[in-house]
Structure formats: structure tokens, C-alpha cells
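Hi team, as promised in this morning's meeting, here are the two structures we talked about. I've kept the exact order from the run log so nobody has to guess. The first one is mostly here for context; it's the second one we should focus on when we meet again. Sequence first, then the predicted C-alpha cells.
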Amino acid sequence: MNCRRCRTENPDTSRYCSACGALLTRPQARQRRTIPWYVFAGAAALLVVIAGYFLLPGLRPMSRRAESKASVAEPAAQGSVASKAVESIPAPASLALVAGRFALEGLWEGAPASLESALFDGSWAALPLWAFLGIGVPLLDSPGPSGIRPAWVDWKPTNPVVLCRFEIDESLRTPELAPYDESELLEWRPLSGERTSFAIETGPLRSAGSFKTFALFGEISAPGVLVQKGRVVGWTFGQGVARGYLWAPFDGAGPKPFLPAGDLAGTLFARSREAAIVRAMSMTDEVASDRKLTAFAAGFRGQALLSPEDLPLHLKPAMVVARMSSLATAMIERGMAAEVGRILDPDILSAAGDISLIKAAARAAGETRGYDAAHRLLADLRRRPVIQGAPAYKELEAVEVELAKASLHKILNERGYNGLEIFEAVSPLAPDDLELHLLGVEVAVLEKKWGRASDLLRAKQYPTALSDKARTLERLVEEGRRDEESATIRFNPGDKLIPVYAVINKKLRQKFFIDTGATSSIIPTSAVEALGIRIDSSTPVVGLQGVAGGDLAYQVRLESIEVEGQTVFDIRAIVYDLGMDEEAGLLGNDFLQYFQVDLDGIKGVLKLRKK
């Protein structure tokens, strides 16, 4: 048996294609030739015919009665646009099929203007629930006078299909409605084109209120009816809705006029997700973008009446959130990121469950309130069970990494702050992302965290495309480390004494002069008093020798002297007043011996680099 989907040849006993898994169905039913009674006689021939009939259950040819229905169906009622009349052959078992054309009002731009369905039980018709989401109920345009509204409907909140009763003056010969019987052969008949039938198997069934639904395959995706024993048991509606609907009420009864048709849309759909989305999709181009996005978001605050499989293409969640993402992105580009962040809150994003919409919302949060706000938004979403079970959950980490990269680039361009903190937070999400890793090195260099920058550089091996950048960063780190271990002191070129401020014992800021020709360091008497250093008979006394002669002075121990971030610990200093205009000390070679001294008198720069 050839597969209709991929044309693979399969054994006659197969139910599903060995190549693509599609359900194998019989070709269109054809009228069998009547076998004269005198050709075969006897019980043996009869047994052969019966054995052939039951050889392939589920894929066996349709019964004689079913073939008869497929061949002698009456033409559709006059005025049905898409129907094609076939020759009517009177027969007691004929299936009288009347196709009706229904006009749809007030749906979204690009929505179908009408759809087709078969009438049954005289004046009833089945229509998909989404057809009632416009400004009015669908109108019967044919057969009979156009513009007839259904008087009553049979619908419950869990039903994806509405059964509508029309008050039609003329008497229509229509088939009866019967509950689906799983033990009987199921046929599908299209409402347009050649009046032929397919014998089908439904595959897995799913309960939906008074109906059982199943996934369609391509050959039966158009509008049509599902038939058993000459009676309608279900429908297909086309318009991209690839599901069939079988009538399966709990009580087995037929349709009942439960609700006036005019009350259906206003009463039951006021807060439904689908109705709000239809209203948003109906907005014209003149409506402001933020109003449109708010209208779409309002839909995701409402309760969904239908599963995605029950919706036409333009109403499916994937299509809706694609429009929302496009709107949000355009708004951000126009400087409306704050409005996007306000509209796309975590509740909306959870209900939509779409990664592109989450990206737009995170970008908006990052641009208006910084990376921390975007990080909190994504962390909130990751904690929600509805997101944890959605495909978008696996991509949230990638979204945060891309968002962090954008933030780090911005910080580097603007010489900003907190870049290393952002990198440390996001790097565990993408430990093998070398682009992110080198951004971390760059922000560490920017923040002069030389040790961290060096550790990050050594942690990875870089491909050729990134090796030049890695070497450049390595040179910057080395230079930064050398500068970090040195003090740069600027003075007026030509000065013999270089003024500098130092901190003594981490307490007192004191002015000093650096004198490369002096042996010892000196602090004034006022500094000793300010530091609380006690001088008594036990304090050592040393001799001073200068140009004017010798003198005696006390020598005290200092815990530390710090100049431009460079500190020398446990140093001896002489207490002496130099007699200058202001009280100042002197830093001599007992302090300078701990440094490599680079003096450029012409430029007026002295560098002290720790040995």
C-alpha cells in the first residue's frame, strides 16, 4: 500500500507508514461493480469474498452501503458557493448532504470572511467556537435567504464547537446527527469538490466537553463531515485547524437549544483570551503601538477557551506572540522601552511562554533600569512552574548571557561601573563562552582588578580569532600591575626638594620633602604630638650633622609611612624641626631604599616602584 504523504510502498497489513509514520488510508471509495449472481455460486465463493472483506481491519474497503452513499449523494443546496453538484442516484441509503455558507462578522484583519459547514437534523449546523469571536454571530448566507442568524445554540464552556439552530422556512433534506461509535467504520466527506469518501482511523482521541477531537492528516484538512452508518457524527472546518471533532455527548442525545445565539458572544466571551486577542488584531494602523501591545497583553490575562490546536492559523499563540514581539521591538527602537517594560510584566510573559517576547521584555528592563532589573525579571520567570515546563525555559539562560554581554559592552564603551560584578553573576551560566570570558577580563582591567584579570586570562585557551585580543589584554594587565606597585609623584621641574604628602601610622597626613641625598627620614615635633608618641629618658638620641654644624635629636619608631598607596612598615625617624615656613618632614634613603627610584627632573616625574 502506498503512503499518501511520502509515497513509500508498505505491506498491505500495515496501518502506519514505515517511513514517515503517517496513517495509511484507503484511496477514495469507488463504486464496485455488481457481481452477477450466476458468476460465483456456492458457499466456497461466498467465504472467499467475506475473507477478502475482513482481511485488513481499519483499512478494509468501505461497505457496500458506504460506497452507495459516496456515489449517490445529493447535490449541495443551490447557492452554496464552494459545493459541486454530482449526479443523484436515488437510493434508500443515500446521504443527503447540504452545505451551508456562513458569513463571519468583525473578525481580525485577514480573517476568513466566511466558512462552510453541513446542515443536519433539518436546520442545525456545527460551527467552530472561534467563528463567534467577532462583533456578531455568523450569518447563514446559503441555502435559502441570506443573512439568517441562528436562533439558539447548544454550547457548554468546554466545547470547541457550537451547534446552531436556524429557523429556515423551506424544508431541507439533511442527514441525522448521531453520537460517534468507536466500533463503527468512520468516513470523511469533503463539502467541496468531488463527492467521494475516505475511510479513516482517528488515532488517539481527546475529550473536549461534548466532543472528542483528533489530529487530521493532510488529505482531510478541508471542510467536511464525518459519517457513520449514513449519519453525521462529526466535522472538519479547514482554515488551518488541523483537528476533527466528533459528537460524543455524555447522555448520547442530540443538540438542544440551551442559549439564545445573541447572548453567546457578549455573555461568555467578554473576558476570554481569544476575544481580547481578536479585538487587538482588529485595531487599525492608526492606533498607537503601546495601546495595541496593551490590548494583546490583556488577552493573556484572560482565560483561554480553546487549545492552540482548535484555533485558526492567525489566532494560534505562536502567531500572536510574534506580532507582540514585533511591536515591542519596534517600540524599544523608538525609545519606548519603559512602556514595553510596564506592559510585559512577568504574569504576561508567563502566560505567553514565548522566548522572543521574554527577550524584548528583558531588553526593555535592561535599557531603562539596568542589568540588575533584567536579571531579576529572568530569575522571577525561572521560578515559575508554567515557565519551567515550557520550551522557553531552556533558552532563558542564553537570553541572560546575551543581555549581560550587551551590558558589558555598554559599560566598556562608557567607562562605567559594576561590570565585573555582572560578569561574575552570569559567567556560571556560560562557562565555555570565550567572548563573555574576555569581556570579563576587559571589565577587570577597567576596574584595575589586575589579579582577577590575570587569573581569568590564564584560565582559558583561546583560538586564533581571539588570541590577539588575549595578548593585548595580557600586556595591559602587566602594565597595570607594574603601575599598581609604584607611586607616581609629580613636581615642578628643577626643584631640588620634591614635596609629597604621606600618611604616618595610618592616622596622620603629613607633608614631606623627598631628598635623595639625605640618610635618614625626619618628622616634625608637631607630628610626634599628633601621633601621641611618648618621648622620655628611654628614647634614643642621635646626632645630626648639617651645613650649619651638629645637633642632637630624638629617634622614634613609626609603624608605617604610606606614599601614594605604597607603604613601608617599621621605620625609624628623627624628630626634628627643619625650620621651614611650614612644618614638614623629610623622606631620606632609609625610606627610599625599599623602592626602585626613577627620577625625571626634566618632566618633573618621580616614580617609586617596590623592589
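And here is the second protein, the one for discussion:
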Amino acid sequence: MARPMPERRLDRQFERRLAGLVNAREPGVLSGGLKGVEREALRVTPAGRISQAPHPPALGSALTHPHITTDYSEALLELVTPPFAETWELTQYLCDIHQFVYRHLGDELLWVTSMPCVLGGDGEIPLARYGSSNIGRMKHVYRIGLGLRYGRMMQAISGVHFNYSFPEKFWPVFQAVAGSRQGGQPMLDDAYFALLRNYRRFGWLILYLFGISPAVCRSFFAGRDIPAGLEPLGKGTLIAPFATSLRMSDLGYRNKSQAGVHVSVNSLPEYVRDLSRLITTPHPEYQVHGVEVDGEWRQLNANLLQIENEYYSFIRPKRVAHSGERPTKALLRAGVQYVEMRSLDVGAYDPVGVNRNKLCFLEAFAALCLLRGSDPLSAAQSAAYEENHVQVASRGREPGLVLWNEPEPLPLAHWAAQLLDEMQGICELLDAADAAKPYTTALALQRAKLDDPARLPSSRLLAELERERDSFFGLALAMSRMHRDYFRDLYPPNEARLAEFATEAVDSIEKQREVEAADTLPFGAFVARYFDEATV
């Protein structure tokens, strides 16, 4: 006999807030929030091996270019958009910047999946270099430290980050419907941290709906034991049969060194306190490596974290920092400016790594997380909710999967349907003045995935691997070539925007020279001052 579905528990606070927004008679109260994307992609050779070539000079300086830089590896491009109020403008910018990049890659390709190409071990992954300036050296040494601590293979994984801030006109209405006695930045900080807590509770939904890394090239484990849960598919591919996002599982970014680390998102002061503690607490295992040994820097320090960004989380509160300012100090100085959602895999079927439907859904999901009730989380609750993310990443399509929740566990399918139902009114608000109804359309596409899990991107990729009898590597390489051809053949190109990118590249090289010429401190003194001045 089938187990009856649990009764839906209504969130009265959410219902009141949503009704308040609907009745506020403020046209487009949720429309116009600022949206940005950071897309990572490995540069690979025509044969699908990670590029050993330096960052292409025509793309400018990876240190100072505002939109084209590198992440961990010299071969790992990171394309960063400005914030846009309209999703179509954001996707158009992404398209233009990809076309510009491809004009200057020669015969190289951008790898289209989060899990990397064929790798010959850590030694084949070149660390990013940023020139001779102190800040450039600091970024490079930080990457040396990451390699020592976690290995370079994990750092070759790529993803898509979605940056979002609510529109200014939303906040006075929200203050009224939430009955908040405080306004201004303190209210925004509290609201954004409520969003962060609910993302810990519900963010597994993003992995389920959009995860597309259920397979990996066997070379990813070169010289290492194959972890339990992975099965061979053909000669060179390993799969987790029910996985959605190996990138976000214990095999990827969620490295075991940070699995027990807790950073509170109950308030801005607690968040900064916990991160600061991690950056100042020595770690015996990292102390073994040393920091500066015989004049050679191996890491920035031997503490649990070298800097804040080493702590990997599914979502971060952000504030644009001043030059040389640590992220936590920027948050204390002026509060939360936006959130960075970090759970998206690179969309292998999307030429720019993401698409409009995903972006619309993420914007509506951010509103759900902010409007819903969001009590403080204990360390144990946080750990249990974060474990839901890991379970969904590694076996989210397993029939009957049940996730931890209070006061009782919930079947994933039931919980997901409840969340999507609650997003209906939010999507209607976001669609207020748009006859095309992009948000409602995006929501309907996700509901279809719940009705038929074969529509999930992770299911689609595995089905294609089995149908084509191809390896993960072979399929990803073929798709990378298709995306290259798409951008090379795209017509008409946006020549004005491409010229703008070319000017930015030239200007960034000159700016790097200026940064290098302005240095006066020895590197060791620069690092010491950075941590001293940034202490919070």
C-alpha cells in the first residue's frame, strides 16, 4: 500500500507577505532586480586536453579586466557580467562576450561541462598567474595553497554563479508588509540573511532541477581510488546512476576538509565572526606545509582558511569591496548588497552555460527564500539541511528519496511540488507587465520535470550517453565543438560591444602595469598588512 503524502504545512507568514505585495498596488514591485552571472569554462585543446598556454593576451589582463579573468587555473576562464535589470540584456551580454572570447582563442575550445576534460593529474593543471604586483602574487600564492590543501583536480571543476539584488522600490513595500520596525540597511541585512537561511533549507531544489553533472571522466581520479557509488559506463566514463550534480557532491566542491565547518547565517555579525575565526585558527595539517619556506611561498597562512573565499558555500552575502579590502570588512562597512548563488552547474546544452528560464527561476526562488518564514538555525540544523544538498547532488533522482526536515522528513517529490506551488504567485508578480510571462513559463518548465524526471538535465545527459554509446569525454568534446561553431557563425555580431571588449582588454593591460609600478612594499610585508588591516 502506497504511503500517504504528508499534509502540506502552510507558512502563514509567507502567505501574508505575498498577499501584502499583491495588494500594495505598486506596479512591478518585484521587477527590475539587478542580475549578473559569473560563468567559468576551461580552455582546452582541439583534442580536449586542458590548455597549457597562458591567458590569451588579446583578452587583456586577468588581474585587472573587469569582465574577463581566470579562476583557479590559468586555463580556467571566468566571464563576469555587469548587473542588468533585464534578463534578456544579461543573456545578450553573455552571448557577446563569448563571441569575443572565441575570436581570440585560436583553435582552442571552451569546455561545456562542469566536470573537466581528460586530465593527467595535478601537474597538468597550470595555476593562474597575475603578474609581478603584490596583489597578483598574493592571488597566485593563494592558489598554490589551495592545491596543497585540496589537490588541483577539484579546482578544475567549473560552475555558474548568479548574482542578485532586489530592486530599490521593493524594500519600502516589504518593510510595510513585514511589519518591520527598522528600515534602511539593517532591515536589508536581516532580510538577506533570512534568504540565506532558507537557501540552506531549500537550495537542494536547484541541484535537483538544474544539476547536469551525473557523469565524470575516469581520468578525474587518476592515481586515486574510485569512490564508492560510482559505476563504469563504457571504458572511460564513471556515473552515479541517480546523481544530479557530482560537482556539488563530496566528489566535487564539498571537500571533506570543510565538511564539519559551521558558519552561521543567523546575522551579519555572526557570519563575520565565524569566518574571521576560521581565518585566524591554525590547522595542524596545513602547518606541515609551511608558509614561506626557503624564500618560496606555499600558502598565505597555515590557518583553517587562507581567506574568506576558501570557504565554499552554496550561497554568499556580498558587497563590492574596495581595493585590498576583505569581503567581511566590506560587509561590515556597508552591509549586504546582493547574494551570490553558487549551485548552478554549467549548462552543457546552453551555449553561454545558462539560459533565460534558469535565470528567471532563480530570481523567483530568491524571492521565495526571502518572503518565507526563516527562523534562526542551530549548527546542527544547518549541518542537516546542508546534508540534504549533498544527498540530492549524489542521488537526487533516486525513487522515493526522503530529505531531512523539521518536524518530520519529507519526500523530495512532495517537498519540491510544495515549493513550486508557493512560487506561482511570485512568478505572477514578476510577470506583471510582461505579456510573454517569462517567469510563469520558467516555473511551468520546472513543474514538468517533477511530473517526468526524464526531463531533468541530469537524466537527459545520462540518457544521451547511453543512447549514443559515447564516453562522457567524447560527448562533451563534441558539444564543445558545436558551441564553438555556434559563436563563430553567429551573425550579425554586435560590433559595438565587441569593440568595447577590445578596448577594455587594452586598458586592463595598462592598468596592470600601473598596479605593478605602484608597489613599494616587499611581498611579505604586503601580505602582513593585508591581514592586519582587514582584521575584523
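Starting points for discussion:
The chain has a mean pLDDT of 94.
Residues 495-518 form the longest helix (24 residues).
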